[in-house]
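// run 5 | inverse folding | seed 20
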């Protein structure tokens, strides 16, 4: 936010936390702290009809908050290229002109310029007009519980107050007060409340006109005049409705009816007339209506879905995100020129891309033809083809990979993953990733994995990215041992061979597993794992890169998990090992210092008699009959 050349940081409510309490002016920005005197900047005159009292300095800090407020914001705080400068309403103009030829929307009565001749819309009751209104804004107040926030304010405020229309807009909280004493007392509480994280709660106060939610709706007579006005502005042959500068329409001005489309009541009345009388509307012109947000216009998506051309030029839209509310319209032509949002793009191509992202069928923008969109219009419903099974390329590779996966996951699920050292290259790398999520990791069911997730969409720091990448086989296997104990459903495995040469094999295996211990015991997960391997000296595979992606399993994956026994490839010479055999294999490999393949051969030769296998191994080693390849891990 900016005002008079001063800028505030995105989290200016957070400066002055515990580490900055005694260091004024040295927070995240170097401008004036909220707690510092700034009355010198306000000595030039009163603000909003109030003298430069002891707390009026806070109103200067509040200026930009009011800029984003629409229905009931303070006009003098928000840049308005189409309104009269430095005037809050029509009273000044009427007094100056003496009622003759009054400003748009006002009609004189014998030159008196009386308030009774003001437009009927937007007035509310006379008592509401006579009261002073103040808008209280708390930046980033949305993160606080409403009861906690109001209780904290009331406990410190010397006067009881009644917050009117408490609401949130973006990250801020706002409400209204109709008592000047309470408003100024509440404003003095800025930065006097400390939240649970040690940050100060900032309170802004702004004088404002009566809020729009107090303003009365158009009566039946007004609606009839509005309907007649729209009828004259409608071209039936083109299904085109021109609402350009509707507020200045002489038919409405002559009846003292003020139609301001930035007000909810007016926009809803117009949309209702469109829905009831011209639902086939194809073109709508809303230019020159001082629209600064499109919340109320969003109803057109359902009320008039055939609109193809929309003119929003010469308004006050500050962000292209406002257009997200209209994304349901299948627009082919859109006008946005002379809106502040147009100045936010570095070049024309970026501007076009941002708008077309929301309206992919757009052919014309601000009167300029655009290249034809690239896309596919699917007129009839189609079904996604069923997922194909594994792809290996050849039976030889299939047998090779299935044998490797059977051995790898037998050890991985055994409870002791240390023997997996034999499967990795000395300089191997491993990384773990989880889906990107905005939720609190501690509350996620994948919380045990979050601290080690290397999802580079979320991890931006280069040093952290490097730290989360596990280097060399000792670190890789040590990390694998820290992961939850698992049981994989090998029947669910789907294998896709990406690359195969004489010196390199890259393949992806996907499936499901369940955790066997911890707080997530028996939870079913889905995984996808990319292995990159090179030939090993024992005619096996040696992993040089291992990327594991874990997510929560879908309902269908959970239903099908472990429903069928895992098939053992008939062509594989390695039989499926039981849990006790896997434990014996691991123990024998450690004792003999042979790799898993040769340890298994020795145990099978001795019919899985551990003592006999040790005896045979000792004899063969003494004779020098065991090849060196048996000790290469």
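// decoded
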């Amino acid at each position: 936010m900016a005002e008079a050349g001063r800028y505030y940081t995105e989290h200016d409510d957070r400066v002055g936390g515990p580490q900055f309490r005694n260091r004024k002016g040295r927070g995240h920005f170097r401008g004036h702290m909220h707690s510092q005197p700034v009355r010198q900047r306000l000595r030039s005159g009163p603000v909003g009809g109030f003298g430069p009292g002891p707390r009026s300095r806070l109103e200067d800090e509040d200026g930009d908050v009011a800029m984003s407020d629409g229905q009931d914001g303070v006009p003098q705080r928000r840049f308005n290229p189409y309104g009269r400068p430095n005037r809050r309403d029509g009273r000044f103009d009427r007094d100056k002109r003496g009622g003759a030829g009054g400003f748009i929307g006002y009609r004189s009565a014998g030159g008196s310029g009386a308030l009774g001749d003001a437009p009927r819309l937007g007035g509310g009751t006379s008592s509401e007009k006579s009261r002073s209104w103040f808008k209280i804004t708390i930046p980033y107040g949305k993160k606080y519980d409403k009861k906690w926030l109001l209780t904290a304010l009331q406990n410190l405020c010397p006067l009881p107050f009644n917050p009117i229309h408490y609401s949130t807009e973006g990250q801020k909280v706002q409400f209204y007060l109709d008592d000047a004493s309470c408003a100024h007392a509440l404003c003095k509480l800025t930065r006097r409340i400390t939240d649970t994280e040690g940050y100060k709660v900032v309170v802004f106060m702004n004088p404002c006109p009566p809020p729009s939610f107090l303003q009365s709706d158009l009566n039946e007579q007004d609606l009839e005049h509005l309907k007649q006005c729209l009828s004259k502005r409608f071209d039936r042959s083109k299904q085109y409705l021109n609402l350009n500068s509707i507020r200045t329409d002489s038919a409405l001005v002559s009846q003292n009816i003020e139609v301001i489309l930035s007000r909810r009541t007016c926009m809803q009345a117009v949309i209702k007339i469109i829905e009831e009388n011209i639902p086939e509307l194809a073109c709508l012109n809303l230019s020159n209506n001082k629209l600064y947000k499109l919340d109320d216009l969003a109803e057109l998506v359902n009320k008039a879905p055939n609109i193809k051309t929309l003119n929003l030029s010469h308004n006050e839209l500050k962000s292209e995100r406002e257009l997200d509310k209209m994304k349901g319209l299948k627009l082919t032509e859109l006008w946005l020129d002379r809106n502040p949002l147009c100045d936010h793009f570095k070049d024309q191509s970026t501007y076009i891309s941002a708008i077309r992202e929301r309206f992919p069928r757009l052919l014309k923008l601000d009167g300029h033809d655009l290249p034809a969109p690239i896309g596919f219009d699917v007129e009839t419903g189609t079904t996604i083809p069923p997922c194909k099974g594994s792809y290996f390329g050849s039976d030889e590779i299939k047998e090779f990979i299935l044998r490797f996966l059977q051995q790898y996951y037998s050890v991985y699920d055994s409870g002791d993953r240390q023997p997996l050292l034999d499967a990795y290259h000395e300089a191997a790398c491993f990384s773990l990733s989880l889906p990107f999520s905005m939720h609190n990791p501690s509350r996620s069911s994948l919380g045990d994995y979050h601290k080690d997730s290397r999802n580079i969409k979320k991890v931006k720091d280069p040093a952290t990215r490097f730290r989360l990448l596990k280097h060399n086989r000792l670190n890789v296997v040590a990390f694998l041992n820290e992961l939850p104990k698992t049981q994989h459903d090998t029947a669910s495995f789907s294998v896709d061979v990406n690359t195969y040469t004489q010196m390199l094999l890259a393949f992806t295996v996907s499936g499901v597993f369940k955790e066997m211990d911890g707080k997530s015991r028996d939870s079913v997960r889905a995984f996808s794992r990319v292995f990159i391997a090179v030939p090993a000296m024992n005619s096996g595979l040696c992993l040089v890169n291992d990327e594991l992606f874990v997510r929560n399993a879908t309902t269908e994956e959970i239903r099908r998990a472990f429903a069928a026994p895992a098939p053992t490839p008939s062509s594989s010479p390695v039989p499926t090992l039981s849990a006790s055999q896997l434990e014996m294999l691991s123990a024998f490999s450690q004792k003999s210092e042979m790799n898993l393949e040769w340890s298994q051969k020795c145990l099978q030769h001795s019919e899985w008699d551990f003592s006999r296998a040790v005896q045979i191994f000792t004899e063969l080693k003494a004779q020098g009959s065991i090849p060196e390849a048996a000790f290469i891990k």
